[in-house]
Amino acid sequence: MKIIDGKELAKKIRENLKIEVGELRKKGIIPKLAVIMVGNNKASEVYVRNKSKACDEIGIEFEEYIKGNNISQKELIKLIDNLNNRKDIHGILLQSPIPENLNIRQAFNEIDYRKDVDGFNPINVGKLSIGEDCFISCTPYGVIKMLEEYNIDLEGKRAVIIGRSNIVGKPLLQCLLNKNATVTVCHSKTKNIREITNEADILIAALGKPKFVTEDMVKENAVVIDVGINRSEEGKLVGDVDFENVSKKAAYITPVPGGVGPMTIAMLMNNVVKSAKLTLEK
Ligand code: GUN
């Protein structure tokens, strides 16, 4: 069994990006990410702080817009429009969740697809589905990078994703299809899930239920990718996979923490640099 070390790969990606940012700066382009956070959500505060730290390390400028619960949809859209129109900003990220009285889908749709480093705008979602160059949602993109780094061939392989979220499950389906895997997506209404997961050469758990994937659900020598980040009762981070037992059966497995998590931020940084580089072509 081999551990797929997301922490190490993320570090390598960030180091390469730092060099690329140095080159861009020499050409007068300073990559800049704007992050909008609405309301106070403790988890979001941690995520945004980590994104800010990664930007600092790589040389990407970071602008933060922290708005109270009382911001209106109109004001939020206006803020996004202002950022869309600013030439010095290459990436715009609206941290989810936002208060329920606001329409997050409409806000994501408003972000210019050329600055949509989260890959949530329907133009990027559509481009991904037809295999065009686009911004790919950072977590699925990170998963694909990990599989590439470990030379895990996807062509003709059975891939099974558990979870159909817009952020992970659905874009991952497209990414794996683009790599010629045969993909099945399981979700909360799927019957006989164990029979399906047992056929998986590559099994990806992205449903957000601690230790949902148990040993009996995994084929011998499968590749197991754990996207889950859950807090146990003791406050420890646990994935969607029962790592201790599944790791005895898997050929490759990602740990939690230190697996997919660090890759998400690395791919966000990658997307900001990609956006900044695209301005050179204009
Ligand atoms: N909230 C949790 N994860 C994410 C993410 O990847 N992007 C955004 N915008 N919000 C999130």
Task: Briefly say what this structure is.
The protein is built from ten helices and eleven strands. It is α/β, with parallel strands linked by helices and 282 residues long. It is globular and about 50 Å long.
Description of the structure:
By secondary structure, the chain is α/β, with parallel strands linked by helices. It folds into two domains: 31-112, Rossmann fold, CATH 3.40.50; 138-260, Rossmann fold, CATH 3.40.50.720. The protein has ten helices and eleven strands. It has helices at 6-26, 42-58, 73-85, 104-110, 122-129, 138-149, 169-178, 193-197, 243-246, 260-278, and strands spanning 2-3, 32-38, 61-67, 91-94, 158-162, 182-186, 202-205, 223-226, 230-231, 237-238, 252-253. A six-stranded parallel β-sheet has the order 1-11-8-7-5-6. Helix 1 runs parallel beside helix 10 (260-278), helix 2 packs across helix 10 (260-278) and helix 6 packs across helix 10. It starts with a strand and ends with a helix. 43% of the residues are buried. The mean pLDDT is 97. The structure holds guanine.
